[in-house]
Amino acid sequence: MDRILLEVDDKTAKAWRNTSIKLRKLIETNLEQLINESLIKSREANSELLLQDARREAAANGLTEEILEKLLNEED
Predict the structure, then answer these.
(1) Quick check: is 40 in a domain?
(2) pTM confidence score
(3) pLDDT tier at 48 (50, 70, 90 boundaries)?
(4) Domain presence at residue 2
(5) Of 26, 48, 46, 49, which Cα lies nearest the Cα of 38?
(6) How many domains does the chain have?
(7) Considering the domain boundaries, does residue 67 fall inside one?
């Protein structure tokens, strides 16, 4: 298990320090899931943006879907 540091406002920090260990563990588990889901969505969104950029660049250079399909179907 590794640790990360999150900065929060003073009110949240005080409430955290005054919370039971059991509730902290539950919050940590939920927060870890939320962070993981957010990171996965972010990576997927970034991948989609990269693909869109590649498609635009290919189209700008004259590589259409039809030409790509033809190239992929050509036998060596």
Answers:
(1) yes
(2) 0.59
(3) confident
(4) no
(5) 46
(6) 1
(7) yes
Q: What is the DSSP letter of 63?
A: -
Q: What is the H or E stretch that residue 37 is in?
A: helix 21-60
Q: Is there a contact between 34 and 26 (Cβ–Cβ < 8 Å)?
A: no
In this predicted model, what pLDDT tens digit does every residue of 9-46 receive, in sequence order? 999 999 999 999 999 999 999 999 999 999 999 999 88
Residue type, 13: A
Average pLDDT over residues 47-71: 88
Burial 18-54 (b: 16+ CB within 10 A, else e): eeeeeeeeeeeeeeeeeeeeeeeeeeeeeeeeeeeee
Structure tokens at 8: 């929060």
